[in-house]
Amino acid sequence: MQCHRNKYTIMRIKNDRLETLRLIISSREMCNQEQLLEALRNEGYQLTQATLSRDLKQLNVAKAATINGNYVYVLPKNATKAKGATIIGYGGAAKSIKLPTKVDGYKLTNVGICFMGINVESITIPSGYTTIEAQAFMSTGNLYRISIPASVKSIGEKAFSGCNKNRLTIV
């Protein structure tokens, strides 16, 4: 399920699922993926073992021994803090865009593949965003100015591939 509002789409269901997974791991001793899948099903999430494995990898979950000698899933420090959401779609027609900082109460921190091939000329990314994902602005040929804040620490491969590099100014 995706949420459409203010012309932007965010990955609400995945972020909610990851937050639920964080809470499960931080509040219960889970020894295997079958236990995690059952706990997530009880919370209303239906997912495959492959999806769970990707979620565990994304959260940097590890296994550690308990006092009893059992191995359980554990989160790295600061993993219980809610993470930001990713913009994955834009349905507007504006030539100049300032990205929002929140949509439906979710703090936006990542620019996903949402502007690929869109006819936009200027984009301002506000402070607080941390990631521009791979191919986010790919083939956005009319883009001539993008403002990227110092908070952005990661820019994915080919994020600006197909843009007119002679015309594009990054500030």
Helix fraction, binned, reads 10-25%
CA-based shape: elongated
Mean pLDDT: 82
Low-confidence regions: 1-6
Q: Radius of gyration from the CA trace?
A: 19 Å
Describe the structure.
The protein has 171 residues and is an alpha/beta fold. It contains 3 helices and 13 strands, in the order ββαααβββββββββββ. The protein has helices spanning 12-27, 33-42, 49-58; strands at residues 3-5, 8-10, 62-65, 71-74, 85-90, 96-98, 102-103, 106-111, 122-124, 131-132, 145-147, 154-155, 169-170. The strands form 3 sheets. Strands 1, 2, 5, 7, 8, 10 and 12 form a 7-stranded mixed sheet that branches. A 4-stranded parallel sheet has the order 6-9-11-13, with no helix packed on it. Strand 7 and strand 8 form a beta hairpin. The longest helix has 16 residues, at 12-27. The model is unreliable at 1-6 (pLDDT under 50).
Give the tags.
single chain, 171 residues, alpha/beta, seven-stranded mixed sheet, 3 helices, 13 strands, 21% helix, 25% strand, elongated, disordered N terminus
Summarize the topology:
Elements: E1 3-5, E2 8-10, H1 12-27, H2 33-42, H3 49-58, E3 62-65, E4 71-74, E5 85-90, E6 96-98, E7 102-103, E8 106-111, E9 122-124, E10 131-132, E11 145-147, E12 154-155, E13 169-170
Parallel strand pairs: 5-8, 6-9, 8-10, 9-11, 10-12, 11-13
Antiparallel strand pairs: 1-2, 2-5, 3-4, 7-8
